[in-house]
Structures are given as structure tokens and as C-alpha cells.
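Subject: sequence -> C-alpha cells, single chain

Hey, anyone have a minute? Need the predicted structure for the following. Not urgent.
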Amino acid sequence: MGARDSFHAVTYDVIVVGLGAMGSATVHALARPGRRILGVDRFSPPHTLGSSHGRTRIIREAYFEHPRYVPLVRRAYDLWRELEHKVGERLYTKTRGLTLGPEDGAVVRGARASAESFDVPHQVIAAADVRRQFPGLQPSADMVGVLDEHAGVLFPEACIAALLAVAAESGADVRREEQVTSWDADAAGVRVRTTRGEYRGGQLVLAAGAWMRVLVPELVGVLSVERQPIHWFEPASHAEEFRPEWCPVTLWEYDTDRVFYTLPDFGDGLKAGVHYEGQSVDPDRVERRTSAHEDAQATDILRRVMPHAAGRLRESQICLYTNTPDLHFIIDVHPEHPRQVVVLSACSGHGFKFATAVGEVATELLETGTSRQDLSMFQIRRFADEKRPRSA
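Reply:
Had a minute. Here:
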């Protein structure tokens, strides 16, 4: 969507498209008295139709995906705490976290590499000691656990509501149930068209998650949207073992390069899901009910690793992952409009925890074109040779 005719009237300083985790955090970071900030979303955030829901989300430092995420998540921790202080509401609970799998597996090796590179407080625990310390967890004898002392849970709906409420109090204009249909940019600024009208601004942030392929055609051959089932189970027995006081968040490499995760029971069941392995979908045509096969897969894996937790299935939801081929993020200026447009997307199913830090990064990119964070791993140009999206 390149430039058409020039235009000069500027109504907003910055327009943010998409108000999930990244967009709401960006509006919050930008909003302050005297600045004209607009946030627009096709739905009414917080909602259950995208990637930023599910009642609980993991936050962790011993980051198996890559050590470069550690400084970003550390900054995010600080900013989540600041937001909690602003709103006087609990947004984070420390539970500790365990990454479990074969000692030479990718998940354990990755978690240890991040922890050791940045002095993350952690322990490496043999399977027998995991079972003794956390009776609800039953790793096989060939597994070890990396215990992340700072890991815990964020409450995503409360987080997004808090971000948007504080932004609105600081003067941001938040518009819900309004779909962006197109945008243009030139040296004078940006123009955004929606189902309700047209807005003009100085700069633009695109953070539309699963709908980014529509707004950034350059990413059509790169991004894939993956349908991910989430499940909540009523513990079959020993329910106290799965309360947040006693049960860490977990990531299990249950088979080679295959990951299963759980979060403790906050009163509505133990949350569990297979990480990746979902179907590629059109985000506007998603089957929102889980299948018998998906329910059975989650139940079977849970029985293997946390047998007392695998009781009645209480509820299921669908989350959308917007994946890049390497499963790392996109945090960059737009290649054709580097001074006007920032692209935040494709968090590949592991981005929520970083949202506050990414919102801060977006403001830096808008103001200076650079960031204090190392963004080299998140640049769009790394996909220059991609021909088609990653298959599920």
C-alpha cells in the first residue's frame, strides 16, 4: 500500500492499528497529555478472537527460543509492574516455571543457554527431584527441569483493559468495532481508511496480528496464521498440587521438538495446550470449537506428564498464532516508509509477555528510527527470499 496523492492535514500524531497485546501496549506507551494518539481495532478488545486472550499467559526469563529475548522480557517485567502500580490491580503472579525435557533436547538446552548467558536465577533439577519438589509433575527418568525462579503468569484480558484504560485517561482516542480497510503514506504523513471513515496522522503503527497480511502485502508470502486449541482441565485428584502456590508454569518437550505447556489452576481449571502443530487458517473463517481429536491429544499428553491433573475437560478455546518461518518476531520500520510506519507482528505464539517492552520499542522507532533493544533478529529484510508461508 504505497503512496497515492500527497496530503497534508494531520489529525493525529500517531495512529495504531490493532489493539491486541502489542497495539494496546503501544497506545499506552505513546499516550500522554498534548499528544494526539488514535488506536483502532476491528473488534472490542479485550476479546477472544485473536491472539491476546486465554485468561492466563506465561512470562519467563529462561527463554529457550533464544537468549536475545532475555533483555526484552526483563524490560517487560519492569513495565508490567509499573502498570500494576498505576491501576492498582494484580496483572502478574509469580509461580516459578519449569522447562522440562531430555537434557540434550532443544528446549532444555535453549533454556539453559538463556539463563547462563544473562545470569537468570535458575536451577537444573533431575527428574526425581522434580517429582519430589512438585508432586503434580511426573517427568520421565530421562528428563531434567530448568527451574526459572522469576517465571509466572500474566492475566491477558486484565492487562489489555489496563493498558487501554490508562491510555484513554492520558488522552488517547480508542475506537473499537472499526475495521481498517486500507492505508497510504508519503512524506507528509499517513492516511488510514476504516469502515467508519478516514483518519490522517503523522505516523502509523501496524499491529493487527492475524490480519497483518492484509495490511502489509509484503508479508503475504511470509506469515502463516495457525489455529491453536487451548484446554482447561478439572484435576482428577490432588487438586491442591495444581494451585499457583504449588504448581509452576511448565513447558514440556514431550517428543523431539514438540512442546506442551501448562499453567496452574486459578479456580477455573488447569490450563494446557500443544504449542504449534495447529492448522493453517484464514483468520476470518476459524472453527472456534475444538475437535474430539484435539481434546484427546491434550488429554493424553497431560496424562503422561501430570496424571493427577487430567480430569474432566471443563472448557476449550481457540487462539491464533501468526507465525514467521523462523518463529521469531517482526519489530521493524516498514521497508518502503521507514520514517512513517512501524510494523509489529508475527509474535509466533510466544509474544504476549513482551508487549509492554515492545510498545516502548515502537515509540523509540517512531521517534528516532532506532531502539535501545537489540532488534537485529526481528528485521523484516531477513525474509527477502521467502516464497511462501510456513505450513502448519
